[in-house]
């Protein structure tokens, strides 16, 4: 195991050094909550955060981005693809969000590579952080198998008291650590403390699903006509909050705008939500997923079954963000447990 | 890594714009450098107009008749298509594609073919029909059952007359509501099925039309004994990327743009959102 020790007092210096060469996106306080945003001052990094409103995917698939510029001045319009990536370090991502990025990586690489995401991903290093306490009562990462991660990071930090152990995941991570941080070799005592911390964390997390999450696809396969969808359809406001905060949601809309001078047009990609009424409506008027119940069902099937089957990794990472964001308390854990209870 | 973008359109010139009906126009489009689009019948392109938007449009011309151009039959119904209808020969439109799975023409060779397009559903099927007619000797019987709401909504009238006149095409056309100009068959498209007999094991059936139509037409096809794996349909959905990312076209777990838009009935009969 390639392990180094990063004393806590070295962290601000490390962040400062990273900021020389990278956009550092890390957890910051926003009112009583936390967000992933570019760090301006190392002191604002809050590695003691519980959960962020939006996942770190904001650094890879921003809520809005330009994908192409079209020059309209000549006789023939000229398209200029805009692949806008800058060297980035995502600092302090929890392991649930690391698992979610694996799904996004596969979705954007599949069949027709999406260079907007992939280039940004290629330019991004990930320093993840082991969770030692549940975020709050809504997380169910232990059920979804995302309470720890064996891969998907360049460096992985675990808090052992006065220092972090740094597990080196990639050569790029190792080079970054050598260049930007004052670390020392791990002693037997550090390894002992790490093992203690890791052993102590598991009992703090409880199982909230009443069944093994591996059964989810099979369970949902029997639940397409379950009465719960109609019930959720009655409650859901179709606000799209659940999909906006979801680390594995990546659906988007495309917008074509033109400058006031009419000399340049832009193609803009923006997050979209399958929960919105018009998501599946075609210009002729037909709406292929008109009922809110059907849209709710679509989301739960994506999270519990279809994404996993398509990309061979979990479609829900148990972060609980959709539960916290829902205005009418729709709770994915309760939904899955209800279906399991009536199966 | 390449700096190319799957979302960046290439601009192609309109070389001809021809009204077909009150609502539909036929656009003939030429790619830069006389390049061929290289499509299969049943595929689509994403058509865009800067500052307005982008929409998926099926390719209506046959690959066998490309001549360095391709054709789109477009109903003006939304922002993009209305803007497109205002364009003239010499104007440029953005094109991405061709995308999607088209009709597997190789598997149709030697078979009898039954086409049942409804309304604008003729647009994607015309691509296949004309390719079949250009290689007429490779196929068995060719039966075309075409239905439209009104006589004025019939598309490609010159080609319909040509098909009707051919000895090697069995062509039947109907309208839901006739008018004084119409002395042909009246009734929905399913009323044409009793007029034909087929050898079901050796027949491949193809349909496309408004959402309401599929169930009934497929019932007729199954009623003729045509196997589910030999019934092909092309489905319409909202699409924003055309390449299986944006999520808009999902039919349950299928991406219409990527796994479709052409499916067999066997593929989608247990997919509740398909029909």
Could you write a compact summary of the structure shown?
The complex is a heterodimer of chains A (343) and B (275). With 343 residues, chain A is an alpha+beta fold. Chain A has helices at 11-21, 95-109, 115-122, 141-144, 171-180, 188-201, 216-221, 228-235, 241-245, 292-311, 321-325, 332-341; strands at 3-7, 23-30, 33-38, 64-71, 78-81, 88-94, 124-129, 155-159, 163-168, 184-185, 252-258, 264-271.
Can you put this structure into words, describing what you see?
- The complex is a heterodimer of chains A (343) and B (275).
- With 343 residues, chain A is α+β, with helices and mostly antiparallel strands.
- Chain A has 12 helices and 12 strands.
- Chain A has one domain.
- Helix content of chain A is 34%, strand content 21%.
- Chain A has an 8-stranded mixed beta sheet with strand order 3-2-6-7-8-9-1-10, with helices on both faces.
- Chain A is globular, with a radius of gyration of 22 Å.
- Chain A starts with a strand and ends with a helix.
- Chain B is of the alpha/beta class.
- Chain B folds into 2 domains: 90 residues, Elongation Factor Tu (Ef-tu), domain 3; 130 residues, Nucleotide-binding domain of ferredoxin-NADP reductase (FNR) module (Rossmann fold).
- Chain B contains 5 helices and 15 strands.
- In chain B, helix 4 links the parallel strand 11 and strand 12.
- The interface between A and B is large, with 56 and 49 residues.
């Amino acid at each position: 195991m390639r392990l180094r020790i990063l004393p806590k007092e070295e962290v601000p210096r490390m962040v400062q050094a990273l900021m020389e060469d990278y956009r550092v996106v890390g957890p910051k306080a926003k009112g009583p909550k936390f967000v992933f945003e570019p760090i301006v001052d190392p002191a604002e990094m809050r590695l003691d955060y519980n959960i962020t409103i939006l996942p770190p995917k904001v650094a890879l698939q921003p809520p809005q981005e330009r994908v192409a510029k079209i020059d309209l001045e000549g006789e023939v319009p000229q398209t200029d693809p805009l692949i806008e990536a800058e060297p980035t370090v995502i600092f302090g991502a929890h392991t649930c969000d690391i698992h979610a990025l694996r799904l996004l990586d596969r979705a954007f690489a599949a069949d027709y590579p999406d260079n907007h995401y992939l280039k940004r991903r290629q330019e991004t290093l990930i320093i993840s952080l082991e969770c030692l306490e549940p975020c709050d009562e809504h997380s169910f990462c232990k059920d979804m198998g995302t309470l720890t991660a064996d891969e998907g990071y360049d460096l992985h930090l675990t808090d052992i008291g006065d220092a972090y152990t740094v597990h080196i995941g990639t050569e790029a991570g190792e080079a970054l650590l050598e260049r930007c941080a004052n670390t020392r070799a791990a002693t037997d005592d550090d390894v002992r403390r790490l093992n203690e911390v890791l052993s102590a964390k598991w009992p703090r997390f409880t199982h909230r699903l009443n069944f093994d999450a591996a059964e989810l696809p099979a369970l949902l396969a029997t639940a397409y006509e379950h009465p719960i969808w109609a019930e959720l359809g009655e409650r859901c406001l179709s606000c799209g909050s659940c999909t906006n905060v979801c680390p594995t949601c990546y659906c988007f809309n495309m917008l074509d705008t033109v400058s006031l001078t009419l000399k340049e047009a832009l193609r803009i990609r923006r997050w979209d939500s399958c929960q919105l009424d018009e998501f599946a409506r075609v210009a002729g008027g037909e709406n292929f997923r008109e009922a809110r119940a059907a849209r709710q069902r679509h989301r739960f099937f994506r999270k519990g079954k279809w994404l996993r089957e398509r990309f061979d990794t979990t479609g829900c990472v148990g972060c609980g963000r959709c539960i916290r964001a829902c205005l009418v308390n729709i709770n994915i854990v309760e939904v899955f447990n209800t279906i399991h209870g009536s199966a | 890594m390449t700096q190319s973008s799957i979302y960046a359109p290439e601009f192609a010139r309109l070389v001809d714009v021809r009204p077909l009906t009150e609502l539909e126009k036929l656009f003939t489009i030429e790619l830069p450098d006389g390049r061929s689009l290289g499509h299969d019948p049943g595929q689509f392109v994403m058509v865009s107009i800067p500052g307005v938007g982008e929409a998926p449009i099926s390719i209506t011309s046959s690959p066998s008749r490309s001549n360095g151009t391709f054709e789109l039959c477009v109903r003006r119904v939304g922002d993009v298509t209305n803007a497109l209808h205002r364009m003239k020969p010499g104007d440029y439109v953005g094109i991405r594609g061709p995308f999607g799975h088209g009709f597997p023409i190789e598997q149709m060779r030697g078979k009898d073919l039954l086409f049942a397009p409804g309304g604008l559903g003729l647009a994607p099927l015309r691509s296949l029909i004309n390719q079949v007619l250009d290689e007429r000797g490779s196929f068995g019987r060719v039966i075309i059952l075409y239905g439209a709401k009104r006589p004025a909504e019939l598309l490609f009238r010159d080609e319909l007359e040509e098909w009707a006149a051919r000895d090697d095409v069995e062509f039947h056309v109907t309208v839901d509501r006739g008018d004084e100009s119409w002395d042909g068959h009246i009734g929905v498209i399913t009323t044409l099925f009793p007029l034909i007999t087929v050898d079901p094991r050796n027949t491949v059936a193809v349909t496309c039309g408004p959402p309401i139509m599929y169930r009934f037409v497929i019932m007729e096809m199954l009623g003729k004994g045509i196997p589910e794996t030999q019934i092909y349909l092309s489905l319409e959905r909202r699409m924003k990327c055309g390449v299986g990312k944006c999520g808009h076209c999902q039919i349950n777990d299928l991406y219409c743009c990527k796994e479709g838009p052409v499916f067999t009935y066997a593929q989608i009969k247990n997919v509740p959102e398909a029909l």
